[in-house]
Design goal:
alpha+beta, eight-stranded mixed β-sheet, 7 helices
Length: about 280
């Protein structure tokens, strides 16, 4: 990822952050505007300088998640989609979860309740973790923070050639990019506190389109907008812990770093479950 800065004052402030990251043994270093153009030749704007992290990487989280789910089925994972948790009964020996068909999955509305008995449960419920934790007697202050993004579909040869391959983060605009294969560019930015509202506002999307037009010579004719609710804790740290009940655990509240942190926190909580829940 390449962090880009348009003026000297922003670049100097960023140096303090860079010094801290380098102290933590991250390979990250300052680059000149000329070096920035060498790293990412498609950059068309004027910049004072940047900081580059060559070891970072981006990808398509949707493809990853679907692929991971399919792979996990070979290990015996049984997915039950389209259900809402109605009630959870906890006792010394087991957990019983009662579910009702979700309104979002009309094909299952005729089904009866689904009851699941388990040795333990782990809540990874995104912005729904607050309600689930309350049902379990815990307080997990996960709040929804709406993030916006656009996917620019690169339909012509010129746009494909002029879209960046290196992930970019414009510190002034608070916008980040990811190239998702030859014909897609993902551009994300802004955060909105609006409860559980999922509407996509045009006044949040247009600045993302404008930024692409200002920094790259490509077509933004084919743009798909998106908005999603990030599960944020007030301290921006995920909740990875055992609940009040010995058979309840949490791995949630990762905010905008869910994919970044998911493998590490999954390893942490699975080890804790293995130690504390009887086989």
């Amino acid at each position: 990822i390449l962090h880009i800065y348009h003026n000297e004052s922003d670049y100097i402030i960023a140096k303090n952050v860079n010094d801290l990251l380098v102290k933590g043994q991250l390979e990250r270093f300052g680059v000149t505007p000329e070096q920035m153009k060498q790293i990412e030749p498609t950059l068309a704007g004027e910049y004072f300088g940047g900081y580059y992290t060559p070891g970072d990487a981006t990808g398509d989280i949707h493809k990853f998640s679907v692929g991971l789910a399919e792979r996990s089925k070979t290990y015996g994972v049984n997915y039950q989609f389209g259900w809402d948790v109605k009630d959870v009964q906890l006792n010394e020996h087991m957990v019983r979860v009662t579910c009702l068909p979700s309104d979002e999955n009309m094909s299952q509305l005729s089904k009866e309740e689904l009851c699941i008995e388990a040795d333990g449960i782990i809540v990874c419920g995104g912005v729904g973790s607050y309600q689930l934790a309350h049902m379990l007697g815990d307080r997990v202050n996960v709040y929804p923070v709406k993030g916006y993004s656009i996917t620019v579909h690169l339909k012509d040869t010129k746009s494909i050639a002029n879209a960046p391959w290196v992930s970019l983060l414009d510190e002034r605009a608070k916008i980040v990019t990811s190239r998702l294969g030859e014909d897609r560019l993902r551009v994300a930015g802004t955060a909105e506190f609006n409860g559980y509202n999922r509407d996509i506002r045009a006044d949040r999307i247009q600045p993302l389109i404008n930024w692409v037009n200002e920094n790259f010579d490509l077509s933004t004719e084919h743009v798909v907008p998106w908005a999603g609710l990030r599960p944020m804790m007030p301290n921006m740290m995920p909740v990875v812990k055992q609940g009040r009940h010995p058979r309840v655990f949490y791995n949630t509240g990762h905010g905008h770093l869910g994919w970044t942190l998911s493998a590490a926190t999954a390893s942490m909580i699975s080890q804790e479950i293995a130690m504390k829940v009887p086989a």
